[in-house]
Amino acid sequence: MTYNASKAAVISLSKSLAKELAPHNILVNSVAPGSTLFPGGSWDRRQRENPAQIAQFIKDELPLGRFGRPEEVAAAVVFLASQQASLVTGACVTVDGCQSRSLI
Fold first, then answer.
1. Residues marked as catalytic
2. pTM given for the model
3. Which protein family is it in (predicted)?
């Protein structure tokens, strides 16, 4: 519950700031990554501790059948910071392979 409330707060704050700062040509966006696997991270640790449980989690919760990678999240951030996103403001870019399908 706390995680969902925090995520909703970030999205709401981003939208509010985007509207407030738009007249100053300042863009505000957020990124909502899904479960992301990287060396030393919590999913990496859990996968080593209980591979069967994580395999079941992947099957049940990750429609693409895998964790996200840091570079996939980074690509969204790079896009938002680029000139190609000059009209994008107040957006929350979800980078989760449809993991959040049942939450929204």
1. 3
2. 0.86
3. Belongs to the short-chain dehydrogenases/reductases (SDR) family.
